[in-house]
Amino acid sequence: VLAAFGLFTFTLFLRRELKGLKAREMLASVFRPAVGAATMAFVIIQINQALELPLLPMLALKILCGGTVYVITVTMIWYLGGRKSGAESWLLERFGPARFRRSDARP
User: Fold this and answer.
1) What are phi and psi of 81, to 5 degrees?
2) N or C: which end of the chain has fewer CB within 10 A?
3) Is the pLDDT assigned to residue 106 strictly greater than 70?
4) CA dist., res. 31 & res. 84, Å (int)
5) How many C-beta atoms lie closer than 10 Å to residue 64's C-beta?
């Protein structure tokens, strides 16, 4: 609830300060991370319900699986969406395999 309030307040602040910013542009900028976070949360909940491990191994498993699922989800949405310029393209242009690099990337 607190995070939702903070996001709402931040959105109002952005709209006030950046008058040309459209709601659609704002939604587009948070879509991939929001879907990635929701998918990550779903996987972590499933792990929590399916396994009973001691605290530290469970924590390590949740961190590893959650982080992996988040990165894969965000990257696949970016890839399927046409590999537009953004954080994903910046990282993959420098560190990723050639098949994920944008076709219009500079050497």
Assistant:
1) -85, 10
2) C
3) no
4) 13
5) 10
